[in-house]
Design brief:
The chain is α/β, with parallel strands linked by helices. 40% of the residues lie in helices and 17% in strands. The chain folds into two domains: 12-106, Ribosomal Protein S8, Chain: A, domain 1 (2-Layer Sandwich); 116-326, Rossmann fold (3-Layer(aba) Sandwich). It has a six-stranded parallel sheet with strand order 8-7-9-10-6-11, sandwiched between helices. The protein has a three-stranded antiparallel sheet with strand order 1-3-2.
């Protein structure tokens, strides 16, 4: 590799990493060394590969982060995992978390301690905020997940629900969200009820198809094991032996949220996801999500997980867009 990156100003450190399986390095580096380029650009270091050794030059903290990212990605390659762009970006983001240093370096020896296994993939944390959230999904009965789009709130909840469904820990998976923003006025849309509400529930379908084979999704929906319905359909029910997810919860009213939360039944789990800063309710009414969190955050058995733009696992630009919108406007 003959490529030069601009290192940050300041005292420079040179680190060397020796990888024992040279035949895996093509997968580690990526096509045209794109993974190395991404690490260089994000951390401001210079990386040179010769044989099975990699030299990293840059400021001490940046060079150490680059080393941790490379060793973390190498352990994934050894386990046969694909190194996609999102995985590289997530590894870079997590390397900046001091509390996660032990988790990142443990990957050199063993798989991550926090993971969700589904029929199609094994999911591991891709940001600092996802680690306690995934722990909470496996442990707590009612979980609130608050934060911007792209942080994995709903996706991880669906993955955990699928994992519990296929192991028999729950009998049903129920996915819901307020339809047509908060009003749920569906009459003006063409088609039958399913055709009216499906466009608003599409993100939930997408997460299902990413974690279960398509034929299983269709079969389980047909049998009633998986139900996808607008929030209004929850009224009057008791949801027992079920994993229940409410998405876009910021667009509920306090009355709707109370109705939904009181559907909670025996041997169930409930996850409420939303972004308190993206409320589409008309007028000045309080969001049911904000109201519920303020009332329930100290109640035993309920956990509240908050994400920030640092936890966005989509394109890095999405995190910067979130910061720009949440910061002062010129």
């Amino acid at each position: 590799m003959a490529r030069k990156a601009q290192a940050k100003a300041g005292d420079l450190t040179r680190l060397e990493v020796d990888f024992d399986k040279a035949h895996l390095l093509n997968a580690l580096f990526g096509e045209f060394d794109r993974n190395l380029v991404a690490i260089e650009n994000r951390l401001g270091v210079y990386i040179a590969a010769r044989g099975n050794k990699v030299q990293i030059e840059g400021e001490a903290s940046a060079a150490a982060r680059a080393r941790d990212v490379l060793t973390s990605l190498y352990s994934r390659v050894m386990r046969g995992e694909d190194i996609e762009t999102g995985v590289v970006e997530a590894a870079i983001a997590m390397s900046d978390e001091p509390t996660l240093t032990g988790i990142v370096r443990k990957e050199e020896r063993s798989p991550p301690q926090v993971m969700i296994r589904t029929r199609k993939k094994t999911i591991v944390p891709r940001s600092a905020g996802q680690v306690p959230y995934m722990e909470s999904l496996a442990r707590d009965e009612m979980i609130f997940a608050l934060g911007p789009a792209g942080t994995g709130k709903t996706y991880l909840a669906v993955a955990q629900a699928v994992a519990m469904l296929i192991t028999g820990a729950v009998d049903r998976l129920i996915l819901s969200r307020p339809a047509v923003e908060a009003g749920e006025h569906l009459g003006f849309l063409p088609g039958d009820m399913k055709e009216k509400v499906d466009p608003y529930l599409r993100p939930l379908y997408d997460a299902l198809y990413d974690t279960l084979p398509a034929e299983q999704v269709e079969r389980r929906i047909a049998s009633g094991e998986i139900e996808i319905a607008p929030l209004a359909f929850m009224r009057g029910r008791t949801l027992a032996e079920a994993f229940v997810i409410l998405d876009e919860a910021q667009n509920t009213t306090p009355a709707q949220m109370k109705m939904f939360l009181t559907r909670f039944g025996m041997n169930s789990r409930m996850v409420i996801c939303g972004d308190p800063k993206q409320v589409d309710l008309p007028g000045e009414g309080m969001s049911g999500l904000a109201d519920a969190v303020s009332r329930l955050q100290d109640v035993e058995g309920i956990s509240v997980n908050r994400f920030t733009s640092a936890d966005v696992v989509r394109h890095p630009l999405v995190g910067r867009i979130v910061d720009a919108y949440e910061g002062p406007h010129a």
